[in-house]
Design a protein that fits this description.
1 helix, alpha+beta, flat
Length: 54
């Protein structure tokens, strides 16, 4: 079973703009072993994340 997540309407997605060098155009990534089914988020497995740093 793939977990799902629905972003609450009362919580605007403004957190990226508070990170140095990030803005609304900065892509959002999710790292998960179980998968990700959220629109607009790039799913990355732990193995892919580790491979990117090698």
């Amino acid at each position: 079973m793939t977990p799902s997540f629905s972003w609450p309407a009362h919580c605007p997605r403004t957190h990226r703009s508070k990170m140095p060098g990030a803005d609304a155009g900065t892509p959002l990534y999710a790292v998960s072993r179980a998968g990700c089914a959220v629109d607009g988020i790039r799913h990355v497995t732990p193995g892919e994340l580790l491979e990117a740093w090698r």
